[in-house]
Amino acid sequence: MQRGVGVAEGVEFLQALAQALAVVALYPPGHKTRLRALDNTYQRLMDLFAVNERPVFSFLGDEVILGKRALRALRDWEWSSRLAGIGMQRLEFDASIPISLEELDAFLDDIVSRLTLRPMDSSSARQERLTGIRFGAVGVGDEGPREEAPEEEEVVAATNAFSLTEEAEAVVWVHDVLRDGGELPLMEAEAVVRSLTVAMHDDRQMMLPLLQLRQFDEYTTTHSLNVSVLSMGLAEWLGLGGRDVRAVGVAGLLHDLGKVTIPKEILNKPGRFDDREREIMNSHAAAGARMILTSDQQLDLAAAVAYEHHIMIDGGGYPSMRYPRDCHFASKLVHVCDVYDALRTKRPYRDPWPAKKVLTYIEGKSGTEFDGALAHAFTAMMEQWEPRLATLDRGDTPPASQHSPAPTDQDSGPPE
Ligand SMILES: [Fe+2]
Ligand SMILES: [Fe+2]
Fold first, then answer.
1. Coil, helix or strand for 220?
2. Which pTM value belongs to this model?
3. Nearest CA-CA partner of 281 in 295, 299, 268
4. From the CA of 177, how far away is ligand 2's center (Å)?
5. Backbone angles phi, psi at 389, to 5 degrees
6. What pLDDT shows up at residue 342?
7. Per-residue DSSP letter, 410
C-alpha cells in the first residue's frame, strides 16, 4: 500500500487536538465532555497512523508542516503560534509505540499547563513517560515540572485551588520588560488571561479569584490581575462570548500598563499629590495606550481601555477630552471594575473600604462617573456572586498605614 504523509488526516487530527485542548482547560479528568474530546483526538490519530506511522508536525509561525508538506488548510491557524510559543515547534508521534487514552489525556493536560502557566500536576505523565509522543525544540523537556506554590502562599478559600502565583510573576515580568523599553510580551499577557479564565471556571461554577495585596509596591500587579478577573466576570455576566470576554480580560490586565513609566515615589506616595505629581500620575493613561499601540496593532481594544479608563461618563476625569464623546463599552466596563478593586484595597493613604460601601458608592455615581447600566450590572453581579469570591491571601498583610488617611484623599476623584 502506498503510504503518504496524510495531509487530510493530519489536518483533522490537529483540529481535534485543538478542540480537545480547549476542553481539557475547562473540564476535569473523567468529565464526559473531556472523554469525548479525547476519544475523538485518539481516533483521528489512529486514522493518521493508518497512512503515516511516524507523523512529524512542525509549527513555524503561521505555518504548519507535516513531514515536508505545508498544511494549507491550517494557514493562520492560531494554535500554531500558540504551540510554538510554549516551545513546541515540533511534535512527533510513533505508531509502533502504543499510546493509551490516559497518556494522551496527560499529554494534553501538560500542554494546557504550559499554555496557562498553571503549575503542573505532579501526577500527570510527563514527556519522558509519554514514549509514543515526542515534542519540543531546544530546551523543552529539560525544565522539569514547575514548582508547586510555596507553603506561605496559602489559599484561603477552600474551594479554589489556585494561588495565581505564576500569573502574578508573569505580570511582574511583563511590566519589567516594558520598563526596560522592550516590546509588550503579548503571548504571556494572553496566557495569563487564559489561565485566569481557567481559574474562574475551575469548579464548573463561576468563581472570582481575587488577590490580596501583600506589599504596596505590588499594587499594580495584584490590581491588574483583579481588574482582569472582575472585567471578565462582568463581561460574562452580561452574556459576552468567550473571545470577547478574553479580549476584555486582556484590556483589564493591561489597563494600567502606563504606570511602568511613573516613578515609584509617586506611585506609592503616602500623602496627597501636588499638582505636578498629579499630572505625572494622570499621564499613565495615555502612556499605556501608546505602549500598547506601538507593541501590537491588534490590541486596539486594550489601547482604548488604557486611554479611557479614567474618563467619567459625564466627561470628567482624565485625559480631558476636547470634545465630549462616548467612551468604548469596554472602557466603561473596566472603569467600574478598576474603581471597585482600588477602593477595596489598602493604599498608603487610606484603609480599604468594605465591599458594601464600595457597591453603594458605585451605585451612587451611576450616570455621572459610571455608565448606569454597567454600574447596576456590576453591583448585581457582586451581590449574587459574593459567595463565589475567592480571596487569595498570599500570607503577609500590608504594613499598617503610617499616615492616617486624609478625609479627602487621593481617591476622592477616580481612584488609581
Ligand atoms: Fe489607571
Ligand atoms: Fe487601575
1. helix
2. 0.61
3. 268
4. 19
5. -85, 125
6. 94
7. T
Closest ligand (CA of 308) = 1
Residue 336 phi, psi dihedral angles, 5° rounding: -65, -45
Q: Per the structure block, which three cell numbers stand in for 297?
A: 496593532
For residue 404, give Cα distances in angstroms to 219, 255, 293, 302, 408.
19, 29, 39, 36, 11
- Note whether 375 and 336 are within 8 A (CB): yes
Q: Residue 48 Cα, ligand 2 centroid: separation in angstroms?
A: 50
Quote the cell numbers at residue 321: 477630552
| The C-alpha cell that represents 104 in the structure block | 494522551
Ligand 1 geometric centre to CA of 224 (Å): 10
Determine phi and psi for 241, rounding to 5 degrees.
-75, 165
Return the ligand number nearest the Cα of 262: 1
334: CA distance to ligand 1 center in Å?
A: 10
> Phi and psi for 298 in degrees, rounded to 5?
-85, 5
Average pLDDT over residues 55-77: 83
Q: What is the CA radius of gyration of the chain?
A: 23
Burial class (CB in 10 A: 0-12, 13-18, 19+), 330: buried
Do residues 54 and 94 lie in contact, with contact meaning Cβ atoms separated by under 8 Å?
yes
Which ligand ends up closest to the CA of 224? 2
State phi, psi for 413 to the nearest 5 degrees.
-90, -160
What does the alpha-carbon distance between residue 298 and residue 306 come to, in Å, rounded to a whole number?
14
The ligand that comes nearest to the alpha carbon of residue 227 is 2
**Cell triple for 174:** 511583563
Closest CA to 355 of 244, 208, 218: 208
The string of pLDDT tens digits covering residues 247-286 is 999 999 999 999 999 998 998 888 889 999 999 999 999 9
φ/ψ of residue 143, rounded to 5: -80, -15
Cell of 232: 471578565
Cα separation, 262 vs 178, whole angstroms: 12
Q: What is the pLDDT of residues 98-149, one digit of tens each?
A: 888 888 998 898 888 777 655 544 433 344 444 567 766 522 233 333 333 3
How far apart are the CA of 284 and the centre of ligand 1, in A? 7
Q: Which amino acid is present at 316?
A: G
